[in-house]
Amino acid sequence: MTSQRPHVVDEIHRQPDSWATALGLAGDLGGVLPRPGERVAVVGCGTSWFVAIAYAALREAAGAGETDAFAASGFPDGRRYDRVVVVSRSGTTTEVLRVVERTAAPVTVLTAVADSLLAAAVADPVVLAFADERSVVQTVFATTALMLLRGSLGTPLDHVVDQARQVLDTGAALPAEVGAAGQFTFLGSGWAYGVALEAGLKMRESAQLWTEAYPQLEYRHGPISIAQPGRAVWILGRPAPGITDDIAATGAALLTGDLDPVADLVRVQSLAVRRALAAGLDPDRPRSLTRSVVLDGVGGAGSAGGAA
């Protein structure tokens, strides 16, 4: 690994400004993003799939319409939707391109690359070029796409931008027993479950740590059995009644707070980088991963791994 400052550090710090830019765009995309009442599928791979899970839950909770989330490789052929939303930073990932080819529904694309195959496949791609990144590990694009989609639902989100700025200004400090934990379980309720999945992925990708993620109320149905001293349980969003007492009894370190789950994800991202560097790993280029997965038959030769 080089001694240079990892690109992902700068990308983590770019997030609040990128979110503010995206929120300014959200009101101008009414003809492209899902309309109220439409039956919508949201698809992505890796991190983008977790963005899809969070947005689907948010859209349904807002009463905007039935919304399903799929890993692109699991998109169901033949199911009828009014619109399909595809999230892909690179715009080259094979599985998402195949979804666009197969569906008969209008497709909305969110990508960071204007001249990508995915952007060229639709009439009006939403190109978040200002949120593109050099690191294989996704931070700023994924959270920016999610904030754009959240903003399109009419939710005021300026406070989330402010929270993230405060987290970064204070160095994303954490209790010592959390920062040094040997295993992490991330919990979230509703849409925050998608953010919990992404938190776990960031720690696995960057620092090669053992992480898991669950809906909060599922945690007591088995996974709590691994909690013990030296391990950490991190709740993104408001804790469910009684769960903090159950976790405290295990001896595991417990982290909760008043941050919006996306702002709290910034703390996870920052910790993942610190743990990676402490272990002598390159947080920009995790082993076996590339920026996107391109399989034979679509877009060129195959490559292993990917961040979509």
Characteristics:
alpha/beta, 5-stranded parallel sheet, Rossmann fold, GlmS/AgaS_SIS, SIS_dom_sf, isomerase activity, 308 residues, isomerase, 4-stranded parallel sheet, 2 domains
Give the arrangement of secondary structure elements.
Elements: H1 7-26, E1 40-44, H2 47-61, E2 67-71, E3 83-87, H3 94-102, E4 107-111, H4 117-120, E5 126-127, H5 140-152, H6 158-169, H7 176-179, E6 183-188, H8 192-207, E7 210-215, E8 232-236, H9 243-248, E9 253-255, H10 261-278
What would you say this structure looks like, in words?
GO terms for molecular function: isomerase activity. Keywords: Isomerase. This is Sugar isomerase. InterPro entries: GlmS/AgaS_SIS, GlmS/FrlB_SIS, SIS_dom_sf. The protein has 308 residues and is an alpha/beta fold. The strands form two sheets. Strands 2-1-3-4-5 form a five-stranded parallel sheet, sandwiched between helices. Strands 7-6-8-9 form a four-stranded parallel sheet. The chain has helices spanning 7-26, 47-61, 94-102, 117-120, 140-152, 158-169, 176-179, 192-207, 243-248, 261-278, and strands at 40-44, 67-71, 83-87, 107-111, 126-127, 183-188, 210-215, 232-236, 253-255. Helix 3 links the parallel strand 3 and strand 4. It contains ten helices and nine strands. The protein folds into two domains: 7-152, Glucose-6-phosphate isomerase like protein, domain 1 (Rossmann fold, 3-Layer(aba) Sandwich); 158-278, Rossmann fold (3-Layer(aba) Sandwich).
